[in-house]
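Much of our argument rests on the idea that a fold can be written as discrete symbols. This step matters because it turns folding into a mapping between discrete strings. The record that follows shows the chain in one-letter code together with its fold in token form.
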Amino acid sequence: MSDHGYWFVALALGLVVAVVAVVLLETFLRDVHRVERGVGLVWVAGKQVAGNTATTWLLGETSQRLGLIIDEAGKHVELLSPPPAPPMLPHPPPEVLA
């Protein structure tokens, strides 16, 4: 094989390597974009979770205050309920009345 033949073989192999490198880099770039979209969705979901749970530290105090409100409502029920009716005496049998 002549020098020109070796050069063409070397150039052809270089071209094949360059094409393969471009294909692999393009595949990698598409995967990177896919990962970035996924990370963006996770970021948005994380911000929503953070927004929904930002005030969970208040739940302990809310629970205590709810207990106080329930106690107060019980007092209102006691004060606003009519007094219980006196117990009914049993009716005497008819023979006793005669």
In short: Residues 91 and 97 are 10 Å apart (CA to CA). The chain has a mean pLDDT of 89. Helices lie at 3-52, 59-80, 94-97. Residues 3-52 form the longest helix (50 residues).
